[in-house]
Amino acid sequence: MAAGRDREAVTDPDWTQVRRLAPEVLGALVRRYGHFDACEDAVQEALLAAARQWPGDGWPGSPKAWLTTVAARRLADELRRDEARRRREELDQARAPRRPAEESGSEPGGPDALGPVGDDTLTLLFLCCHPALTPASQVALTLRAVGGLTTAEIARAFLVPEATMTQRIVRAKDRIRAAGATFRLPPADEQGARLRVVLHVLYLVFNEGYTATAGADLVRDELTAEAIRLARLLLRLVPDDGEVAGLLALMLLTEARRPARLDGELGALVTLSEQDRSRWDADAIAEGVALVTGALGSKPLGPYQVQAAIAAVHDEAPTAADTDWPQILALYRVLETLDPSPVVTLNKAVALAMVDGPAAGLAVVEALAGDRRLARSHHLDSVRGHLLEVGGDRDGARAAYRAAARRARSLPERRHLLARAARLG
Amino acid sequence: MKYMLLIYGDQERWESLGADELAAVIRETDALNRALLESGELVGAYGVADDAKVVRAADGPPAVTDGPYAEAKEFLGSFTIVDCDSEERALEIAALNPASRYTGVEVRALVHEAETQL
Fold first, then answer.
1. H helix count then E strand count, chain A
2. Residues in chain B within 8 Å Cβ distance of A158
3. pLDDT band at A287 (very low <50, low <70, confident <90, very high)
4. Which residues lie across from B56 on neighbouring strands?
5. B61 in contact with A at a CB cutoff of 8 Å?
6. Which of B1, B37, B116 sits opposite A167 (nearest CB)?
7. What is the C-alpha to C-alpha distance for residues A322 and A371, in angstroms, rounded to an integer?
8. The most confident of A84-88, A181-185, A396-400, by mean pLDDT
9. Cα(A22)–Cα(A151) distance, rounded to whole angstroms?
10. ipTM over 0.85
11. How far apart are CA A139 and CA A310, in angstroms?
12. Is-above-0.80 flag for pTM?
């Protein structure tokens, strides 16, 4: 961890403005000198140097020019260490007087080299979320190269040793090189599929923060904030994709409930129906609702938009009893056709029970009982317990909650399920 | 998701290995840990000493007793914590551990952890 920066650096507004420059500086460097992996290291070192020097020396007039110059120098040093002659030539190039980064768009190069700064960031997102990488590597590299976070910060957020996170990033870059991926936008006919991967990576970052189980969860809050920031960035770059708006809306509508989501002392999950809605973030809800409404009205439908729409129906109900369950049921039926999964069907069962009674919901649950995809998950027993409880079968509900608690994958969830079992006597 | 891979000692079984075989097991374990570090999946790997003590404070001030002893049929010998993409991968890593050929490797998902930095 660099001196002069501590944990709030991730959400510190001034420093976030600096991190925002990371993909732009990196994009400019890669287009000028190639060597994505070396450039990425150089930008990271420049950010660390900035964190060390700026608090004492004062902020430079143009942070971006400062970062670009320092990163280019680091890159030159790195390339010099590699003794290959070809790289020496690039060293000379790197030492030549530099134009401000803003002008780098006019550098000679392929057609992509002429793109504006936003294209660089999008290209970078596609590269970091390359399908050849494992999800954990995609997440790590995206947070570093696009998010401008340090390896130490990412390691801390994921509670792994820094050396482990360093290797995850090294490995990710090795795989990108092995896959022959270069710093240019994927062909137009591949961009849709590649964008889905980018969305999934941002979704993973958000979920890692949101479903966090660790301690005071301070670091994890930063992950959801960073996921939202990156989703906003992506929406600016790809304003016409309804799923980008849908994902950002889903994050905002979910994050809005965070203050009411956990029982303070024990950290047990509080169900939606029992949350104190006055603690929800009204601004985030308003923004999320507006985003999803706009996307649903004008864009092709996708699963993130439908999930966001479901979250919006919940968030707009003044009390749990006011929830428009027929609307939620209809949306789950749409989601089932767009993105079928047993978990979606289970959620639909809950909505169905609210509309047609617990027996109707239970019939759906029991039909899923043999599904191997749910065999190790707590979801089925958790929903079964809930529906049995609503239907008045206390013994059955208690047994189901306990079975679910044994399989729960997070402590708040487990505590919640055990509490519900205990409440039934 | 993080997983804990537990390897229980079986004194008889380990002692039945010749020096060469034991050295091969150690080399293989070191190489596996190195590979897990390089793949960015290793959180930690620990060997556990044989002499154990148990502290009980149920009936008043803490009382310390020796054991369980390594001579017991099963005692914890070492454990590894990995952070990987799926349970399938955790099971694959367990199968790569040479102990899987001797005593077996127990794989447990870690459902909670406290922060270790302020």
1. 20, 0
2. 83
3. very high
4. B63
5. no
6. B37
7. 33
8. A396-400
9. 14
10. no
11. 26
12. yes
